[in-house]
Amino acid sequence: MSDNDPQLGSAADVRARIDTSKPHSARFWNYFVGGKDHYEKDRELGDHIKEIFPGLVDVARTSRLFLGRAVRHLATERGVRQFLDIGTGLPTADNTHEVAQRAAPDARIVYVDNDPLVLAHARALLTSTPEGETAYIDANLYEPEAILREAAKTLDLSQPVALIILNTLGHVADHKEARDLVARLMSGLASGSYLVISDSTATSEGMIAASNEYNKSGAIPYHVREVEEIAAFFEGLELVEPGVTQVTRWRPEAEDQTAVDAYGAVGRKP
């Protein structure tokens, strides 16, 4: 793809949208998982948060591992071949399409994000096996119907799709609104589709303090929720065992199962 691919916009237009004067969640998270796509304000906030609550680094790292396990499980054991990843974040190792296509080369993946730096790096997300396909949509979570319309250009929405929303719903302040957005997205997906969610939770004083400091930084606020509120996103769905649990304890492989302030689950649409 060229630097002026119409699907992604011109490189100059994208760069003009990047604001480095305040932290941004995608860049902040990228710093915590050991990426290279962050700026001074993101690193300053990250270092400050680590002093308050070092455990947030573990949340970032283990949430990424949860994503890999969930995608592998869906591709290898549930036969899912289509993935819609909203709130993609910056490319790192083992992105959704890499995990999915490693297990199923014919898998199709659509990424959705509206951060200009993510958009600037979207070309790294648009690699694919010859049998599969990847696409990127520049949109935000508050546009579920628009997301589904665009996703339908790559995915067959009459067939099961795995909807992935990781560490993103916390940006929606009102829990009822967040549930409504998830419900509207799932309503456009076929029976047999799956919902994959993980988010930071208000399960320790350290996490709550870290969230409060983050929200003072000028970045778009992120609201940690109770575990029961995470579970509510899956109402009406059939939970895949072990249900709603700490991300380190959802079908663990060889990774550390240390307790973390992040819960996730996978649910199937009947």
Automatic annotation (TrEMBL):
InterPro entries: SAM-dependent_MTases_sf, SAM_dep_MeTrfase_SAV2177_type. The keyword Cytoplasm does not apply. GO terms for molecular function: methyltransferase activity. This is SAM-dependent methyltransferase. SUPFAM superfamilies: S-adenosyl-L-methionine-dependent methyltransferases. Keywords: Methyltransferase, Transferase. It is an enzyme of class 2 (transferase). Its EC number is 2.1.1.-. Signal peptide: none annotated. It comes from Streptomyces huasconensis. GO terms for biological process: methylation.
